[in-house]
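Q: I have 101 residues here and want to know how they pack in 3D. Can you give me a structure?
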Amino acid sequence: MVAEAAVWAALGEVQDPELPVGIVDLGLVRSVRVDGAAVTVGITFTSIACPCTDVLVEDVAARLGRLDGVARVEVEELFEPWSREDVSEAGRIALLALGVT
């Protein structure tokens, strides 16, 4: 069994495919559930027409699949509304450094 904190830490390492900013800091990760060796992650996207949804799902599954104690990873695509308010302070700083305002 993997700890939920370890899952969040690993998700913090996954970057958006279009920007070198973590998906947790961008506010894309909405939920994490750990049930024994199974992990389910709920993610949303900055837009419903995001061209990188498949890449993002694959990156999340691949990163979590490397965690000790994880036998199964499910990524739920939630398509919940996303806004700039979902971005963490660290994410805002990273975006500003990239020239994104």
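Q: Anything worth noting?
A: The longest strand covers residues 29-35. The mean pLDDT is 95.
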